[in-house]
Structures are given as structure tokens and as C-alpha cells.
Amino acid sequence: MAEAPSGLRILLHQHQKERTPVHISSHADRDRVIEIFKKAILKSDSPENFALQTVQEAIKPQRQTVLVQDENQSLENALRTLLQELVSSAVQSGEDIMQYGQSIDDQESTYGQIPRLLDIVLFLCEKGHVEGGMIFQLLEDLTEMSTMRDCKEVFGYIESKQDILGKQELFGRGKLVMLRTCNQLLRRLSKANDVVFCGRILMFLAHFFPLSERSAVNIKGVFNTSNETNYEKDAPNGISIDFNFYKTFWSLQEHFRNPASTTVAPTKWHKFQSNLTVVLDTFEAQPLSDDDGKANNLEEEESAAFNIKYLTSSNLMGLELKDPSFRRHILVQCLILFDYLKAPGKNEKDGPSESMKEEIKTCEERVKNLLETIPPNGKEFLHSIEHILEREKNWVWWKRDGCPPFEKQSTERKTSHDSVKKRPRLRLGNRELHQLWTWADKNPNALTDPQRVRTPSITEYWKPLADDMDVSAGIEEEYHHKNNRVYCWKGLRYSSRQDLEGFSRFTDHGIEGLVPSELLPPEVRSKYHSKPVSERSKRAKKEEESKESVSHAEDNQITNSTTDMDTGGNTELEDSTAPMDAEALVSITQSGAPTPEENQKLSPSEAGNSEAEVEVEADTGTKTTDGEVDAEEEPDA
């Protein structure tokens, strides 16, 4: 026979001998298994000490380590029969089923036979010795065979084992059975008299199932339309109130029962609004005093745990209008309906119209004002209702978004000792530097490889910018490399180290002036590499002009001094001397030495003086890089 899945296996001791297969197919075999478990539930030891041996003795599986599906089903049938016999015996003896066969162990704690049987099966399911859904099937059978008073004790046992039943290996096998069991209990309970028990069941389901479990959520938002409110259609004889108001008042329940029908047609909304206006006007015309709140013992009613469905007799209408609790129930129903109408769907088109929103807002303000004035503690009650409705909006939108999961995968917290022990050791402080360091150790030539560690040449670096400057390339301005500030900054550094001539063009032409001429097309090269008048040439021209003015001043001074000397000592020489040609003087000043033709025009004394001046100027002058002589100031005589 094929092996069962891992969840159906039973772990047996390896040293045990092979047993002959025993099928529980007859009543005798089933009775034998029942007797074995009857003896087991009378033991006072913990189930973990004898539960596994009890299964081995009762089943005798075909293989040592496997409990096949048929054997597992036979064991479940036998245990369900045993549970039925114990419940029957408890009913005949008149005892509570959870207390039947109660005994006292060494620690003086009492336990019954049925809880003992459930503990044994729960241990076997938890450890994977038997199928995980067996315990849930026994609990469902037990609740179906018990009265409502006994079901409270059975459910108390379920609540006490909630942590074990909620484990993943058991939850997946029995969650649907548990949901069916709880729903059956809710159907059997009275919503008016068993409110506390119903609340316990709902709280258990909320804790047992995860928040995002869709089986517990009304995804489609279906209303309980079966909750009809019947009231009198015809006025009885001797009625003391306005019967039209009576029908108007109770007709509101049709809209509260199915709010979606109110938004189907505008006529239904207008009818609801007119009926609600009549009711609100009546409440405002007949306000309640503090004495009315004390007379009705509202605080005692709120502390009592029961749900109310008010009677609709027309004879009680006058008394109900004086009841603060009655008014609060009606007004809270109105607030719930308004919240639904303001956000009925995901799409904006499904929402109410602008005029309808204004009408809802007006009615909502009137309802809140009435709730605030109802004694006692009207303001506190209104604040609590508003807080509940605000929280309810979050759940409504969560359901309309498809119930996304709330749970996150739990991460186990590691102690500081474990984290230090498992933390990798880093040589350079962080993981990136450590990886770089270890990579260099494994590749010693990586950091010295000339193809890796090198500075690009000027031509190589400026090639992308040269391509951008080529008009034929058609590269748009916004994608040019000159817009990259990091690229320009690095290029300036390279040019300042390797190309001073190109670096000097940055002042006149910007970053594009640094591109070498051989990279540019002819039409672009002429724009950035024409020879402009440099600052140095301008400075040299200014120096020449200043030098000419100084030379003219010196020549005039020499001429004047020579004239004075000739006038005072040698008139004959003055007469024989011819005047100097201005052009010859200028040429002497510019060239520094007179030509032979100029010497012929000069007198011997003037020619000698000119030659002496040229020699002095040549000795005292300094030669510049441009090949020009700069005159220095002559020392004072």
C-alpha cells in the first residue's frame, strides 16, 4: 500500500519488532481500541508520557513508521464513538459532560474523562502522530451533542487551547471545521439573551483567524435584509397618538435594513429625508430632561449585557418616545446610514450627488445635536459614537481594497552575543573597502596596471567635447559635455598640467577654447584658434610709445645744452654748424646709430656726441624677450 503524506505519519520506536497488520474493520476491533483508550484516559500522567504508546497498542500499523490513511480514518471513527458513549453516560448520570468521571490526581486537581480524551488527541495532533484535523472533528461532535449550558463549558476548553489550535500545522487542517462549529453555535444562541456568549465566540474567531482571512469578512457588503421590522399598517381603535407619525417613524427601518436601496432612485432618498425630518422635528419639539434619564435607569440598562429589538405596538409609542435609550438607538442608526451614503463605492460616480451631500450634512448635524442633548452624558456618548464610526471607515476601505494582508513575516530577534559571533570581520571598517582590499590582495598587479592607473591625454579627454562642437554631428545643445560641471572641472585640471597654451584660451573662449585644434573641423578651428592681439603685444606697443617720448625729451635737452656751450665759448663753430635735420634725429633716436648719410649731414662734434650716446645706451640698456632694448634711467651726474 502506498505511503501517506508526511502529516499522516506516526513515529514509532525503531527497535520494536514487526507487527501483524490489524484492520479496525469490525465492531470487535473498534471495541478493542475503545477499551484501550478508556484505560488511557484514567491515567493521571501527562499525555506525552503514554499517548504515543496507546496509539501503537491500539492500531498496530502495517509499517513501523507509517500510519496510512485507512488506519487514521479507523482511529478517528473509534474515538468519535468513544466520545459519543461518554456524553451519553454523562447525560444519563445527570452530570455536566465536561465534569463526568471527574477524578483527583496527586496535585489535587480535578479533570473529567472527556477533557482527558481531548488532551490526548490534541497532543497526538500537535506532534504529528495522527491527522491534524481529528481534534477539530471531535470538538464539533461534542458541541452538537451538548446542550447550550454544556456548550459554554466546551467552548471554555476551546478558548483555553486557543494557542495550540492556532498553530500553523493544526490551523490549516481544521480552520474550516472550527468556523463551521462556531457558526452553528451562533445560530443556536439567542441574540437577545445570549449576547455575552455570542461575543465570546466572535472574539475567539477574531483571535483565531488572521486579520486578512477572507472567510470572516463580508467582502460584497451584503446586508441582512431578512431582519424585517413588522408594524401596524391600520390604525387600531382608541389610539392615543398620531398614527401617521407612527407609520412614518417605523418606516425608517426599511431604509436602515437595506441602505443600498435608498440610493437606487432619487425618489426613495427624498421619501426617507421627508420621513426623517418629521421624526427629528418631533424629537426636537419634545426634549428630554435629566429626570427622564434617571427615571428610565439608562446606566443600568447600558451595563446589562443584552441586545434590544424594540416592540412596535402603537400603544407603546408614547412611552418609547420618552425613553432616552430608544432615541439613541434610532439616531445612531441614522449616523450609520449617513456614513454608508457618503462613501458607497470605490468610484466617484457611485457616490452621492452634490445636492444630496448637502442634505446629508444638514441631517447629520441635526442628529448629532439631538444626541448631545439626550441625558445623561450626551456629549460623552456622542464622542464615543463618532470615534467608533471613524474607526469603522478604516475597515470599510480595507475591505473595498481587497483585504490586503496586515501580517508581516516575523523576524527572530538575535541576541547581541549571537550577532557579534556571526558578524564578519572587516579589515578596513566597512564592507566595500574590505572587498576592495581583499580583491587587491588576490590581484597584486591590478593597482599597477598602466591600462588602469593613468591620466588621459589632452586629445583623448577633449575628444567628446570636440564631437559636440562639430555642427555636422547634429548633437543638441542640452546634451553637450560642456554642461557637465564635473567634466569641465577635470578638463581644466588636465589642461593646466599638460597644455598651458590651451589653458590660456579659457579666458577668451571659455571651456570650448581648451579643445586642441587638431580635433576641430576647419570652420570651427578658425573661430577658436585665430591669433588675437595678446596682452603682451599691447604692453610692448605702449612701452615703445613711452620710449619715443623719453628720447625726444633727452635730445631736446642735449641740443639746448650744446647751444649754450657754443654761444659762450666758440661762436665760429656755431656759425659753421648747419642745423640738424629732424628726420635724421628721429632715425637716430629709433635706430640708436646714425647712417653714413646722416653722419655727413652732422658736424664732426655732433657726430661724435651721437656715437657716444649710442654706446652709452647700448651699455646701459637691457634686452627684453622680444629683442627690444628698454632704456634704464641714467644716474645723476
From TrEMBL:
Give the start-end ranges of region Disordered.
Answer: 522-637
Q: Which GO terms describe its biological process?
A: mRNA export from nucleus
Q: Where is the composition biased (Acidic residues)?
A: 627-637
List the Pfam families: efThoc1
Q: Which InterPro entries match?
A: THO_THOC1
Where does this protein have compositionally biased stretches of type Polar residues?
556-570
- Superkingdom of the organism of origin: Eukaryota
Q: Cite a GO CC annotation.
A: THO complex part of transcription export complex
Sequence ranges of Basic and acidic residues compositional bias: 532-555
Know the name of this protein? Answer: THO complex subunit 1
